[in-house]
Design brief:
Largest sheet: 8 strands, antiparallel, barrel
Helix content: 10-25%
CATH class of the largest domain: Mainly Beta
Order of helices and strands: HHEHEEEEEEE
Distance between the termini: 69 Å
CATH topology of the largest domain: Porin
Low-confidence stretches: 15-39
Structural class: alpha+beta
Strand order of the largest sheet: 1-2-3-4-5-6-7-8
Number of strands: 8
CATH architecture of the largest domain: Beta Barrel
Shape: elongated
Strand content: over 45%
């Protein structure tokens, strides 16, 4: 039986590509290699910072107060879902018409557990025990105790916060939005307050 050139060429191509099929196993090797490379790119170290006015800073500004909220933290990812590390933070309030000033300095640790991740968004829960150093100075207009006064104190506090994290695990930059809840006032009498973190991952 004679086979036409077109049929022969077709059979040749089919046999050629069929012969390449065992190579599919080897073809997966670059994928697995890239997957391992992607895994190796996961950044376990995170440095986060915050610098902004108090959440009700507009009201403070109208009333002649200036407020600054700051924070600096380092986190290490001990497991894919767990981040732990130290943090320092503080709040500073002052006025532009008197010597009234209140400032806090906090030092503690935080532990975060990621509950769920959807693409670039992660949803986590964070807890942080810390020691607060509180200092104030002002001029009292009280009749019984007038004049310039100042003082300080230490208080142990903690907060629990749901967190929305934006950024891929291997991204250099990421962003956190959290809402802190505490048994004591966190700032200016508030027991719950929003907070943000800008993160650099390496």
């Amino acid at each position: 039986m004679m086979i036409s050139k077109q049929t022969g060429l077709l059979l040749f191509l089919l046999l050629f590509f069929w012969g390449l099929q065992p190579g599919k196993i080897s073809a997966k090797e670059p994928d697995s290699l890239s997957a391992s490379t992607e895994t190796s790119k996961v950044r376990n170290h995170r440095v986060g910072f915050q610098l902004n006015p108090h959440p009700d800073g507009v009201i403070d500004w109208i009333n002649g107060y200036y407020s600054t909220v700051w924070a600096l933290r380092y986190g290490y990812q001990i497991q894919p879902k767990i981040l732990i590390g130290p943090e320092i933070s503080g709040v500073d309030f002052r006025t532009n018409f008197s010597d009234n000033r209140v400032s806090t300095f906090n030092s503690g640790i935080f532990v975060r557990y990621e509950v769920y991740r959807f693409r670039k968004f992660g949803f986590a829960v964070e807890i942080s025990p810390y020691l607060e150093y509180y200092k104030f100075s002002h001029t009292s207009l009280s009749v019984t105790n007038p004049g310039y006064q100042e003082g300080d104190d230490y208080r142990f506090k903690y907060f629990v916060a749901p967190v929305i994290h934006y950024g891929n695990p291997n991204a250099f930059f990421s962003f956190d939005f959290m809402w802190k809840f505490s048994h004591l006032d966190i700032s200016k009498g508030y027991k719950s307050i929003p907070s943000i973190r800008f993160n650099f991952n390496f």
